[in-house]
Amino acid sequence: MPRSHTLTDVAVLVCWGLFGVVWAGGALYNARRALHARRRSFGSSLWLLAAIGAWLVVRRVLGVEALSWPTEPEAIRVLGAALLVLATGFTLWARVALGTMWSSSPVAKEGHVLRTGGPYAVTRHPIYTGILGMLLATAIALGFGSWLYVVLLVIVFFELRIRDEEQLMKEAFPGAYEEYRRRVPQLIPGARPRSRRALGA
Fold first, then answer.
1. Residue 123 CA to chain centroid, in angstroms?
2. Which of these, 10, 15, 145, 151, has the minimum number of CB atoms within 10 Å of its CB?
3. 103 pLDDT exceeds 90?
4. pLDDT at res. 37
5. 63 pLDDT exceeds 50?
6. Would you say residue 36 has pLDDT above 60?
7. Is the separation of the CB atoms in 98 and 42 below 8 Å?
8. Do the beta carbons of residue 84 and residue 12 sit within 8 Å?
9. DSSP 3-state assignment of 40?
10. Residue 13 neighbours by CB under 8 Å, 6+ apart
11. DSSP 8-state class, residue 34
12. What is the CA angle 43-16-108, rounded to 5?
C-alpha cells in the first residue's frame, strides 16, 4: 500500500474521530447546561430514518463498488485528505460558536440568540456546510464508492431539515432572520443568497 494511502486513512480516522468526540462531548454538556426548548420540530427526524432505509436499499440493489475508482491518482487522494482537514476545522468552529444553542433537532430555545458572526457569516448553516464538506472530501480521499451515495442522501436530509429550522428561526426572530437570509447564503460559501421575492415565498 502506498504511503499516501496510509496517510489518507489516518486523516480520515482522525478527522471523523475528532468530530465524534466533540459531538458526543457537546451533547453531554448541553444535556446539563442548555436552555429549555420553547419550540421544536421533529419532522426531519422521520426523513433521516427514510434516508437510512433508502441507503440500505440502494446499496443492495446497485452495489457500492459501481462508483468506486480504485485507480484514483494519489494526488487526488491527498487533496481529499487536505480538504477533509479544512472541512473538519470549519465544522468544529461552527459547533463551538453555536455553543448551548445547538440541538439534535430543529429548536428555538428560551433566550435563544441568533448567531450571525464567525462561521455564521459564511453560511447560515455552517455545521451542515462543514459536514457536507467532510463527506465530499472523504469520498475524494477514499476513491468515492459508497461515499457518493451517503453525500447525496445527506444533502437531501439537510435540505429538508433546513426548511424546519428556517421556519422556526423566522418565527423566533421576525424581521431579523429575513434580513440575515438576504445577506448570507444557505450552504455554499460565496453563493448568492436567494432574492427577496423568493424569501417571501
1. 11
2. 10
3. no
4. 46
5. yes
6. no
7. no
8. yes
9. strand
10. none
11. S
12. 30
Q: Which of 107, 105, 155, 163 is nearest to 131 (CA)?
A: 155
Residues 45 and 165 sit within 8 Å (Cβ to Cβ): no
Residue burial 61-86, b: 16+ Cβ < 10 Å; e: rest: eeebeeebeeeeeeeebbebbebbee
- Within 8-120, strands assigned E span 37-40, 107-109
Query: 23 — phi, psi (to 5°)?
Result: -65, -40
CATH 1.20.120.1630 holds for 3-199:
yes
Q: Is 30 exposed, middle or buried (0-12, 13-18, 19+ CB in 10 A)?
A: middle
Q: Mean pLDDT throughout 75-87?
A: 93
d(CA 61, CA 2): 32
User: Number of C-alpha atoms within 13 angstroms, CB side, residue 53?
Assistant: 6
- Angstrom distance (rounded) from CA 26 to CA 17: 14
Set of cell numbers at residue 31: 444535556
List the grid coordinates of 64.
457500492
- The residues that bridge with 108 in the sheet, in sequence order, are 39
Q: How much of the chain, in percent, has pLDDT values that exceed 90?
A: 33
What residue ranges do the domains of the chain occupy? Answer: 3-199
Decide if 11 contacts 141 (C-beta within 8 A). Answer: yes
Q: What is the DSSP string of 103-139?
A: -SS-EEETT-----SGGGGT-S-HHHHHHHHHHHHHH
Return the C-alpha cell found at 192. 448568492
Cell 424581521 locates to 175
Per-residue pLDDT band for 127 (boundaries 50, 70, 90) equals very high
